[in-house]
Specification:
The chain is an all-alpha fold. The chain is about 75% helix and about 0% strand. It contains 7 helices and no strands. α1 packs antiparallel against α2, α2 packs across α3 and α3 crosses α6. About 25% of the residues are buried.
């Protein structure tokens, strides 16, 4: 009986790592700008999932819960730890699943955290405004404003890079 429980837990670990690992790593990497810290947060998120063993309504509920845990852990890490050396922005494409997101992720990493999280969830992960509001426990109007301001910041930075040929 104990062997069946252990085997079942191993299958659950494999499933959540395979399903959500890359997505959570991308989110954490954008927030923390540090590969090792992002890995630590993702690992801690999975450990929290296993130790709390929450029940979910569906896979979207599970995904939102994992994103919430990961982003909160990232905030705590930024707040309480001295962040080690940041990764070189040019190496970011190594972590992006597809090349079309590389340029966006590159610019996102340079934005303030509150803007880059909502932009990443909306444009890269495909969440709607009301879903992001629930995940981050903020109002939908706050999400909309952060999206608007984040887009403005991206536009300004893009114009400056192109204007100066950077």
């Amino acid at each position: 009986m104990l062997q069946q429980v252990v085997w079942s837990a191993e299958l659950d670990v494999e499933r959540i790592v395979d399903t959500y690992g890359n997505m959570l790593f991308s989110i954490c990497l954008v927030i923390l700008c540090n590969e090792k810290d992002a890995e630590d947060v993702v690992q801690d998120t999975f450990i929290t999932h296993l130790t709390k063993s929450p029940t979910f309504n569906d896979s979207e509920h599970e995904k939102a819960w994992l994103i919430t845990i990961a982003t909160n852990r990232c905030k705590n890490m930024r707040r309480y730890n001295i962040i080690r050396k940041h990764i070189d922005i040019n190496n970011l494409q190594l972590y992006s699943k597809n090349d079309k997101n590389h340029g966006l992720l590159d610019h996102l990493m340079r934005l303030p955290t509150k803007h880059k999280v909502v932009l990443l969830l909306h444009y890269v992960e495909g969440y709607k405004v009301d879903e992001i509001a629930k995940i981050l426990t903020i109002t939908t109007s706050a999400v909309k404003k952060r999206l608007q301001r984040g887009r403005e910041l991206l536009r300004e930075r893009y114009r400056k890079e192109n204007e100066y040929g950077l």
